[in-house]
Structures are given as structure tokens and as C-alpha cells.
Design a protein that fits this description.
Helix Hairpins; 5-stranded antiparallel β-sheet; alpha+beta; Alpha-Beta Plaits
Length: 274
Amino acid sequence: MEKFEQILAKVYELIVTYGMKFVTAIIVLVVGLLVIKWITKAVVRLMKKGNVNDSLIPFLKSLLNIMLKLMLVISVMGMVGIQMTSFIAVLGAAGLAVGLAMQGTLQNFAGGVMILLFKPYEVGHFIEAQGFMGTVKEIQIFTTVLTTPDNRKVIIPNSPLATGSITNFSAMPTRRIDFSFGIGYGDDIDAAKKILLKMAEKDDRVLKDEDPPEVMVEALADSSVNLKLRTWVKSEDYWSLFFDITENVKKQFDGAKISIPFPQQDVHLYNHKG
């Protein structure tokens, strides 16, 4: 009987010691989960207002949710009286080991997040990066998929894209085309300039309002006088106008008897008599 009373006393002592802690921990857990839910919804609303990429929002939402819940669980376990120092140390060591083992993958993941957040390019843009040129077809969390003009599929890791140089040909609504044409030294420069200007002014794809086309002498080269024609076009009209103007210039110059000279070099022969 005396032994039973000792057990009851021990149980009562444990209830008094840990009961309130346990109840408090449960209350903190429930309230914490509600607060985490509210914080997650608020962050999602902010991301949508900030035009964060739709494919990135679910991932960031899950990541934030997991981190906050992990912090809450650790706090609750500490309130109950469980020593968390060793647990946190083991968790940190495990995280470090996984991070070192997946260093390259994590770099690509971080690069993907940065690309989706700051948007140096978007799906449908034509870019040049890491030695490749192509249209962006997909921006994934680890890689970016391009399709080259000759319809090759190129998969580039996001890490070098996020830290390297990128030329985005589609970022601006308009682009300037610089044509360079050479004529002979004996040809009429003014006549050639009029042909180039008339050709550009008659083409509806050339933007004439803000910055009209212009022609100037670019250089007096070894075998030609180089003329430069500058025009502004919409980005989507760049290549079609480039090829059309190049072809028509040859036809117009031929009709006006303006030559496009071949590279020439004068060779002087000396006859040395012994």
C-alpha cells in the first residue's frame, strides 16, 4: 500500500510539473498553426501583387510553410522540456552534408528562383547566353529550355544563366538595324544615299515617327566607300526587314549602275636585274 501511494505521489508530481507545460505547448501549437496559415496567405497575396511568376508561388509557399512549422515544432518541444540542442546540431550536420553532396543542384535551384523572381527573360523571348541563341520555351526550377532557329532543343542549367551575361533580343519593343553597304570610289555617293533612304521610307515596317531612317558615310575603306543605313523597327520585324532590305539594295544598285566592289589589293611587280 505504501508503495502504491509513492507511485501516485510520483505521478501527481509529474502531472504538476509537466501538465501545465504540456497544456501550454498544445495551446502554442494550435495558435502557431493558425498564425502560420495567416502568414502564408498574406505572403502569397503579396507575391501575386508583385507579379511573381505563377510557377514559383506554390513552391515558395510550401517552402515558407515548412520552415515556419519546423520552427514551431522545435519551440513546442523545447517548452515541454525536451532538450533540443543535440537535435538541432544533428539536423544542422545533416543539412550541411546534404548541401555539400547536392551543391551543383542547389546552385541551379537558387539560380532558377532568381530568374523567376527578377525575370531577365521570359517564355517566348529570344536570348543569347552561354554560347547558345534561341527562343525560351520553358523556365524550370533547375534548367531553362531553348529552341534554336534550326529547331534544336538546348537545356541550360540555371546557375550560369543567373550569374552570367544574357543578351535578350525580345526585352525591348523596338530595335535598331544597322545596314552596311559598300560602293565603288567612282560611284555617286548622293545617288546611293537617296536609294537607301527611299527604300527605307517606303517600307511600312520601318518606324519613321520618333527616329526616321538615316544614311551616313561610315568609312573610306581600302576598296569601297561604306555607307551605313540605320532604321528602327518592331522587334518581331527585325529579321524580315533585314533580309528584304539587303536583297533589294543589290537589285536597286544594279539598276542604278552603282557597283558593290569586291575586296581588292594592288600588287606591284619589280624586275630586279642582276
